[in-house]
Write a structure and sequence with these properties.
88% helix; 2 helices; 101 residues; rod-shaped
Length: 101
């Protein structure tokens, strides 16, 4: 984060040296200071939002990894279950054929 700091007195003196009246220089210095304050506040707010987004993304990443692991476990159980079921059917069919012969 970059913070802008304005030396309003030096800025005002520079403006006066450039031909601005004291009132004009003071007004411009105040206005510039307000603009920089708003810019600093906006940057701080954006940094906070950036940190919140990074935190949210990390939470989602962890959640996604957990969901993928759960899905892999579920698929493994189904595949093993289907294999056992198919084996049972084939063995049962073979036993049935063996008794018929």
């Amino acid at each position: 984060m970059v913070t802008f700091i304005l030396d309003t007195l030096a800025y005002s003196d520079t403006l006066k040296a450039g031909g601005f009246s004291a009132q004009q220089a003071a007004t411009l210095a105040r206005t510039m200071a307000e603009i920089l304050d708003r810019l600093n506040a906006t940057e701080t707010k954006m940094d906070r939002q950036d940190n919140n987004l990074r935190h949210t993304i990390e939470i989602l990443r962890v959640e996604m990894k957990r969901n993928i692991a759960q899905t892999k476990a579920d698929l493994t159980r189904w595949i093993i279950g289907a294999g056992v079921f198919q084996t049972t059917i084939v063995v049962g069919a073979l036993l049935k054929v063996a008794k018929l012969v």
